[in-house]
TrEMBL record:
SUPFAM superfamilies: Cytochrome c. The lineage of its organism: Bacteria, Pseudomonadati, Pseudomonadota, Betaproteobacteria, Burkholderiales. Pfam families: Cytochrom_C. GO terms for molecular function: electron transfer activity; heme binding; metal ion binding. This is Cytochrome C.
Amino acid sequence: MSRGFTSQMARNIFYGGTLFFVLLFAALIFDTEQRIPKRSNAGELTPAVVRGKHIWETRNCIGCHTLLGEGAYFAPELGNVYKRRGPDFIKAWIKAQPTGAPGRRQMPNFQLDDKQLDDLVEFLRWTNGIDTEKWPPNVEG
């Protein structure tokens, strides 16, 4: 004779389901943690990359640009700018700012010297090497 659905059965289903999903979540975290180091093919963090990241942060580039999808959407994505434009273009563009073109957003001139430009370009080269699994979806970011 069936007594129906009891509170003890409901409690067992709740605890069993909770345990199952906690274990599933832990397995997914473990799998992700194992994959991330294999995906990062950007190369070694050199002192130039570290200095370039410092320039990126102190000039608040993320306040206007996105980098790998993170940041503001006021200016272009720079995660793949090294591949799109190359180091010489990046340096010339930064030096030429602001262009003074009417009706366009203007990037400020940060008065970076050649060493700082080289470091910033090295940081952008390093970020270009990260496997982003095809992000951004188009080549222009």
